[in-house]
Design goal:
alpha+beta, 5-stranded antiparallel beta sheet, about 45% helix
Length: about 160
Amino acid sequence: MLALIKFMKTKTYSFIIVGLLFFSCNSNNSEESESTKNNEPNKEEIMEDPEFVIVKEYPMDEWGGAQPELTLRESGNAWLITEVPPFEDEDGNELFDDEDFPEGLEFEKLIADYIGTDVIRDDREVFIIENATEEQCLKVVEFFANYWDLRKEEYKMKKEN
C-alpha cells in the first residue's frame, strides 16, 4: 500500500489512475444509465411485468379478414387485439373506414354490453377487460364468432345509406 501512495504522488500518474477509475465505473453502468435517463423499463422489467406475461391464449376464428387475438395476462386482465374496422364485412365487401363500419367508434361498448362488464379501449385496436373471468373471455370469443349475425340493424342501415 505504501508503494502505491508513493507512486500516486506524481501528478501524471494520479491523473491517469483517477481517469481510469472514473471511466471504468461509468462503463459498468452505461446500460442502466441509458434506460434510467429515458425513464424506460429495461427488457427484464418488461418481461417480469404481470401485464405483459401471457397466461392463456384463446383461439379465435378469423373476423372480417383479420385475426383477433385474445390473451389472459398474469395481472388478471384480458387483452383483445384486433383490426377495427375489419378488412371486410360478412359478405366479403371491403371495409375502408369508419363510414363503412360505424360501430368501430364505440366497439368497446358493444363488447362490454355483450359480455356484461366494462371494456377499456387502450388504443384503436387494443381492448382490455380488467380482472377478466373465464366466462367473460369465452363470451368475447362468442361475440366475434357471431358478430355479423349480432350486428345491430342501425349499423347495417348506416352502411346502406
